[in-house]
Amino acid sequence: MKDATGGGARCPFGFGGEAGASFAASPQRATPVPEISPESDGYRHVAGAQDLACDTLPGFLSAPVPEGENGLATGRCLCGQVSFRSGQPVSMVFASHDAASRKRAGGVALTIMLRAGSTEFAGWDNLAQYQVSAREVSYFCRTCGTPVLTRHLAPDAMAGMISLSVGLLDRTEGLRLAAEISHDEKPDFYAFAGERRVITTGELEAIFAGRGR
């Protein structure tokens, strides 16, 4: 699997990327993604948000995705109710150490980053969602509780991107740890070895500020 962020775009964190494999995403369904009915008045169902472009939403499939279909990156949650395939070949894994990411993942959050528009999901209606902040929304399988993905809404450099949990991938050959994010928030009881980029929370904010946010 090769690095790519789709459409020849570069990684929001400043890593180089090659153009992804060609991918004809399934047309968006006319039926909107089912809305969760939370008690919080501050909740916003992002799939219906008027300010989101169509290409920030993934494609939706009616049938489960077979493992390794057509050589594409595929994956599924623990119970298999939610599955996906990506048209982007990937190799970069990001480890996020900030408190919100650790709570969401139940530990260090290991993810791959993709453009939502190049990814298709089956079983999307089996996902529950939680708006973590104005910047991101997290999705979990309703049946088994597996953290599936986080959709990024802001800053501008991240809009339209999704972070998929590495643990869902059917195959992990060729993956490498490219960066540790918010390394200054990492607890002391674990550490990664090997060569990778280390980015603090302050440095991350500076990167986004330099990209116009």
How would you sum up this structure, described in words?
The chain has about 210 residues and is mainly beta. It is built from two helices and twelve strands, in the order E-E-E-E-H-E-E-E-E-E-E-E-E-H. The protein has helices at about 100-105, 200-210, and strands spanning about 60, 75, 85, 90-95, 110-115, 120, 125-130, 135-140, 145-150, 160-165, 175-180, 195-200. The strands form two sheets. The protein has an eight-stranded mixed β-sheet. A four-stranded mixed β-sheet has the order 1-6-3-2, with no helix packed on it. The longest helix has 10 residues, at about 200-210. The radius of gyration is 16 Å and the shape is globular.
Blueprint (SSEs and pairs):
Blueprint: E1 59-61, E2 73-76, E3 83-86, E4 92-96, H1 99-105, E5 109-115, E6 119-122, E7 127-131, E8 136-141, E9 147-152, E10 161-165, E11 176-181, E12 197-199, H2 201-210
Parallel strand pairs: 1-6, 4-11, 11-12
Antiparallel strand pairs: 2-3, 3-6, 4-5, 5-10, 7-8, 8-9, 9-10
List keywords for this structure.
213 residues, mainly beta, eight-stranded mixed beta sheet, four-stranded mixed beta sheet, 2 helices, 12 strands, 8% helix, globular
Concise account of the structure shown:
This protein has 213 residues and is mainly β. It is built from 2 helices and 12 strands. An 8-stranded mixed β-sheet has the order 7-8-9-10-5-4-11-12. Strands 1-6-3-2 form a 4-stranded mixed β-sheet, with no helix packed on it.
Order of helices and strands: EEEEHEEEEEEEEH
Strand order of the largest sheet: 7-8-9-10-5-4-11-12
Query: Could you say which structural class the secondary elements and strand pairing correspond to?
Result: mainly beta
How much strand content do the residues show? 25-35%
Number of helical regions: 2
Give the termini distance in whole angstroms: 29 Å
pLDDT under 50 segments (min length 5)? 1-9, 17-52
Radius of gyration: 16 Å
Mean pLDDT: 79
